[in-house]
Design goal:
Blueprint lengths: L1 H4 L39 H11 L7 H10 L3 E2 L4 E2 L1 H13 L6 H15 L5 H21 L1 H20 L11
Antiparallel strand pairs: 1-2
Helix pairs in contact: 4-7
């Protein structure tokens, strides 16, 4: 590398003094910075897909389609992923009233079972029977809470519509 690139690069080696345990050194410069903890950066579309892969959600072929569906339905916005009021409301409502439906474990287990069926390790009838039981339980939970779910989702839809239609404060009257 040095033979070809050497003439174009500055190669200055700094020889550090040898140090022994317990040696004391003087600081040449000290910068006192006043900083606050910053929140983690937003997910990007690629990082969401990586997180889905890490958690075993979806397949390589379906992850991007799942993410696109969330955008198409208005649950997510922007390339720097931002959850809408509707997305937050839906997640909250489903977690409160139909927790099995949004449990990652359910999705992972289904993916594993489908893989086992594909590889001939278990019979598809067993997977179908288990899925029917799970869907029946989820449907019963949903039906029992249907009115509450509808009311809370309605509030989320109204909040999202207000957010989308509000441009800011009126300079004349002070209203939105």
């Amino acid at each position: 590398w040095m033979e070809y690139y050497g003439p174009y690069a500055k190669a200055e080696e700094i020889i550090l003094p040898s140090l022994n345990k317990g040696d004391k050194l003087k600081a040449k410069k000290l910068d006192l910075l006043s900083k606050q903890t910053e929140p983690p950066s937003r997910y990007s579309q690629a990082s969401v897909i990586k997180e889905m892969e890490k958690r075993g959600l979806g397949t390589r072929a379906t992850r991007s389609a799942i993410l696109q569906t969330l955008y198409d339905r208005g649950y997510l916005l922007d390339k720097s992923v931002r959850v809408t009021e509707l997305g937050l409301g839906l997640a909250k409502v489903l977690k409160n009233y139909v927790p099995d439906f949004v449990d990652e474990k359910l999705t992972k287990e289904m993916e594993i079972d489908l893989e086992k069926v594909f590889n001939g390790k278990i019979k598809e009838e067993k997977v179908i029977d288990d899925a029917k039981k799970t869907i029946k339980k989820i449907s019963e939970e949903f039906k029992a809470n249907e009115d509450k779910i509808g009311r809370e989702l309605g509030k989320a839809v109204v909040a999202m519509q207000e957010d989308r239609t509000t441009l800011g404060v009126c300079k004349n009257c002070g209203g939105n």
